[in-house]
Design a protein that fits this description.
The protein is α/β, with parallel strands linked by helices. The protein has 2 domains: 5-182, NAD(P)-binding Rossmann-like Domain (Rossmann fold); 189-347, N-(1-d-carboxylethyl)-l-norvaline Dehydrogenase, domain 2 (Orthogonal Bundle). Helices cover 51% and strands 11% of the residues. The chain is built from 16 helices and 8 strands. It has helices spanning 13-24, 36-45, 67-71, 86-93, 118-126, 142-145, 160-170, 184-206, 211-232, 242-252, 258-267, 272-279, 284-299, 304-314, 319-327, 334-342; strands spanning 5-9, 28-32, 61-64, 76-79, 102-105, 134-137, 151-156, 176-181. An 8-stranded mixed β-sheet has the order 3-2-1-4-5-6-7-8, with helices on both faces. The termini are far apart. Belongs to the NAD-dependent glycerol-3-phosphate dehydrogenase family. It catalyses: sn-glycerol 3-phosphate + NADP(+) = dihydroxyacetone phosphate + NADPH + H(+); sn-glycerol 3-phosphate + NAD(+) = dihydroxyacetone phosphate + NADH + H(+). GO terms for molecular function: glycerol-3-phosphate dehydrogenase (NAD+) activity; glycerol-3-phosphate dehydrogenase (NADP+) activity; NAD binding. Catalyzes the reduction of the glycolytic intermediate dihydroxyacetone phosphate (DHAP) to sn-glycerol 3-phosphate (G3P), the key precursor for phospholipid synthesis.
Length: 348
Amino acid sequence: MEHKRTAVLVAGSWGTALARVLADNGHQVNLWTRNPQQAEEINTKRRNEKYLPGAELPSGMKATADIAQALEGADLALFVAPSSAMRDVARMAAPHLSSDTLVIHATKGFETGSRKRMSTVLAEELDKDERCVVVLSGPSHAEEVINRQPTTVVVASKDSACAEAAQDFFMNEAYFRVYTNPDLIGVETAGAVKNIIALGAGLSDGLGFGDNAKAALITRGLAEIARLGSAMGANPLTFAGLAGVGDLIVTCTSPHSRNWRAGSMLAKGLPLAEVLERMGMVVEGVRSTKAVHELAAHYGVEMPITEQLFSVLFEGKSPEQAVGDLMGRVRRHEIEEIAAASRDKWLK
C-alpha cells in the first residue's frame, strides 16, 4: 500500500481514533485542532486526555493548530468537526485544499437551520461536486477503535472510485474493516437519526425500563429512520446494513455512547443545559432532533419517537409523559407500515 499524506480535522475523540487508523496503516497524519495546548499535548505526551483519557497515541500522528500546515500536500482530508462547526471548518480549509484531495467526513448529523447533510455542506464550501464527497459511518466507538478493537464500518459516495479510494486509506487486516456503499443519502441519514433514537434508549434505561422497552424502541426507531430516508431518496436496504441497524444497536446499547448517556441523565430529571454541561462534549442527537423534526414535517413523514423527544428536549415535556403518549398511540398494523416505508423505486 502506498503511504500518503493525510489531514484530520478536528482532534476530538472520533477524529483522533480515525487518525490512529490512518497512522497504523502507514500514512503520514496531520491532526488539526484549534487549541495549541491540545496540539502540544498530543505531540509531546502522545495523549489526548480530554477526549480519549489513557490512550497512547502513535508517533506517526502529528498535531498542529495551523490548518494550512495540516492540509499542505494532503492526499486525503478527513473532516470530523461537529455538525454545528462543519461549515466553519470547511470554510477555513478551502483556501488550503488541493482540487485533487480526497474529501471524507465522519460526522453524524444535519446542519441546524438549513437541515443539510454534511456532504452538501462540504461540497458547497470546498467548491466540489457532492458526488466526490465520501462519508464514513457505521457501528464504531472511538474508545474501542483507539485500542484497536475489531470494528467494521462503511464508506459511501455517489462516485464508486472515491468510495474505493477511501476504503484503501482506512482498511486493514488487523482491526478495521471497511465496506463501500453507493447510497450517500441513506448512510448520512441513518448516522444522524440513530443519535435521536439513542437519546430515547438512554432515557428508557434511565427511567428503569427493561430490555423489552429498549428492543421496541430500537425496532420502531429503525422504522422511523427508514421512513425519513426513503422520503429523502435513500435506498431502504441501506438501513438493514452497518450504517442503519448496525450503528443503531451499538449506539443504543452502550455507555460509550454520548447520546445514550445524555438520555439517561435527562430521565433522572436533569435539565438539558446541565446535561450538556456535564457531558463536556458534543451530543449530536440533541441538534439532530431539531433538524429531523423539521425534516419530518417537510417530507410529511410520521416520526413519533422523534416527536416525543423533541417535546422532552425543547418543550418541557416530562420523559414519563412522553413514554405514556408513545404507548397510547392508535393501533397500527406493523407489516402494512413496513411495506409502506419500502414502497419506492428501489424495491419495484
